[in-house]
Structures are given as structure tokens and as C-alpha cells.
Design brief:
six-stranded antiparallel β-sheet, globular, SH3 type barrels, alpha+beta, 3 helices, about 120 residues
Amino acid sequence: MNRGDVVTVDFSRHDPADKVRPALVVQNDRDNVRMTKTIVALITTNIRRAGEDTQYVILSGHPDFPASGLYRDSAVNCSNLYTIRQSDVSRVIGRLSQATMDQIDICLKAALGLR
């Protein structure tokens, strides 16, 4: 599992009201290798808050959309981070480019209040 992978996770293990949904691995690769847990950002098809600086929208026309494994317009919600066991990842469905991850880093900084 690598930073930038789009994965599916059964979040009902963390919240019984939740479901299987896509997430983006945002933790660094060094820690993904040496640790049993990883940090992910939820991906949602609810793009109503797309203008917020903590959301990164991937529309069907986005250059990374075909490789993302997503099937609908979606947003990476950098305000909604989870630390999960890597074994909770059902599968890797896609990947985002380094250029997109650079933009997501900006959203993560906004979400975490980093300068």
C-alpha cells in the first residue's frame, strides 16, 4: 500500500452507521511499510462543499479520473481523516498522480491548520 493509492475500506468497523467506501492513503510510504496502520482521507460523492479549501474534487474530466478507480464525481475530504489497520483495506482500486497529491497536500495543510 502506497501514498496516493485509492482504496476501499469497510468503515462500519469504526462506525456501525457507516459503510464500505473509497479512501485515499495519505500517510508517507516509509510508515506504510513499517507500521500496521495507515492514515486515509475519506472520499465522498457529496461534492456540495467542493469550494472549501479542505476538499479536493475529482470530476470525470480530471486527468487522474480514469486511473483513480472512482466511478462518479467525488471529493477527497481532507477534514475527515482516519487511522485504520492496513488489514481493513479491502482492495486498492486506483491511484492518484504526484501532481494531484501535491494539491491534496495543500488541502491537508488547510484541514490541519499547518502553514
